[in-house]
Amino acid sequence: MSHLRSGIFLAPFHNLTENPTLALERDMELLQHIDRLNYHEAWIGEHHSGGFEIIASPEMFIAAAAERTRHIRLGTGVASLPYHNPFILADRMVQLDHMTRGRAMFGVGPGALVHDALKIGIKPADQRPMMNQSLDVIMRLLKGDIVTEKTDWYDLVDAQLQLPCYTQPIMEMAVAASRSPTGALASGKHGIGMLSIGGTSPEAMEKHTQNWGLYEQQARANGHVPDRGKWRVVTLIHVAETREKAKENVKFGLHPFRDYFSDVGTFPIMPADIADPYTYLVESGAGCIGTPDDAIAYIERLLKGSGGFGAIMELAHNWADWDATKRHYELMARYVHPHFQQSRELRRDSYAYARDHHVEFAGQASAAVQAAIDGLAARREAAE
Q1: Across the strands, what pairs with 312?
Q2: Tens digit of pLDDT for each residue in 263-278?
Q3: DSSP readout, 263-322?
Q4: I want to staple 208 with a disulfide (CB 3.0 to 4.6 A). Which of 149, 196, 287, 303 is the partner?
Q5: What is the rounded average pLDDT of the residues 277-290?
């Protein structure tokens, strides 16, 4: 079993009943919480409409989070490339790479919400071609090239970044991939990471695995060596001490989450016609609501079915209230992550060795104590 990194994908999702200012502050507190729990990374989304996913600038959020955290790596999850001039976006991300001393990651995609694109005059059919155009330019800019290129939505003239990446040769990057092959083909072409979103139902995992196959083909065709460590999979998990407690916890926010995907969301994490989201998630395998042991079994199934990936990313879905949410991440860090990161094996070996030789070692310790007692008695006797 290879070392599996841990992380979250923070869209974020917030019920319309929430105070948005406090919701954003809790998102920041969540990053501080999981940083202390040794999560490896967090990816922060970009959304501009729909009312539920309320971070508009992941770069701004990452800059603030980097000052409040110590270890966790922070990525745009993702920056919607059609919404930005590629030169300006690349320049901002390089600045963030420097400000975080290499903890920033650059995740990109076409934009998940159709209503975001339409509000700035972008047709949904144009989003993926625009992403590819922009990504090609951004990769050249990050490598120090001078770019002159005119399209129907940007015009670059002798564009060259004034700073190199802090992370060499370039900052870590990933492309979002869901049902469409676009993300897999783009990430494979450039030899960067693939971030599989859209859930982990058996059907979704089959599509993600097919996309990884496309990634490998495209990477090799462009002279890159495919590395499953660069593949991140976003999943749905909530754990508590018991299955009953986990089920009770998610009553807080599971139905509003379901409603968002039936009313507003334009990507298929939760089918629109699901009346009982808890039963659907548990029985279909689309998510895990249970104990740490259930989470271990669930992740093992994903690894086996996919052939393996480098990081498991928990969607920060806010199904539970704040205290239960923090407890979920603590249980994941204490009991689930060590299973996949081989952090307990040497301790267990050491314990087993001491246990198996316990009688021998206890006898030696007892003999040593008795020898000390006898020696003291002998010295006293000799002194008399």
Answers
A1: 6, 233
A2: 988 776 787 788 899 9
A3: HT--S-SS-TT-S-HHHHHHHHTS-EEE-HHHHHHHHHHHHHHHT--SEEEEE----S-H
A4: 196
A5: 95
Pair (360, 275) in one structural domain:
no
Q: Looking at residue 268, what is its pLDDT? A: 67
Q: What percent of the chain has pLDDT over 90?
A: 92
Element (H or E) spanning 31, and its range?
Answer: helix 20-36
* Verdict on whether the full-model pTM lies above 0.90: yes
Average pLDDT over residues 46-58: 97
Q: Does 233 share its domain with 217? A: yes
Q: Which two tokens stand for residue 195?
A: 């971030």
- Do 137 and 181 fall into the same domain? yes
Q: How far apart are CA 144 and CA 139, in angstroms?
A: 9
Residues 33 and 161 in one domain: yes
The verdict on 266 and 355 lying in the same domain is: no
CATH no. for residue 227? 3.20.20.30
Give the pLDDT confidence of 175-222 residue by residue, as tens digits.
999 888 999 999 999 999 999 998 999 999 999 999 999 999 999 999
Cis check: omega of the bond before 169, within 30 degrees of 0: yes
Distances (CA, A) of 185 to 131, 189, 252: 12, 6, 39
| Cα separation, 237 vs 286, whole angstroms | 9
Under 8 Å CB-to-CB from 310, ≥6 apart: which residues? 2, 4, 5, 227, 228, 229, 230, 231, 232
Encoded tokens for 16: 């319309």
pLDDT at 2: 65
Query: Cβ distance 194 to 232 under 8 Å?
Result: yes
**Average model confidence (pLDDT) for the chain?**
96
Q: How many domains does the chain have?
A: 2
Do 333 and 354 belong together in one domain?
no
Task: Give the list of residues 6+ apart from residue 335 with CB closer than 8 angstroms, or none.
Answer: 292, 296
Q: Are 33 and 68 in contact (CB under 8 A)?
A: no
- Structural domain that includes position 200: 5-343
Q: How far apart are CA 238 and CA 291, in angstroms?
A: 8
| pLDDT, position 384 | 78
- Tell me: do 160 and 274 sit in the same domain: yes
Q: Are residues 353 and 339 in the same domain?
A: no
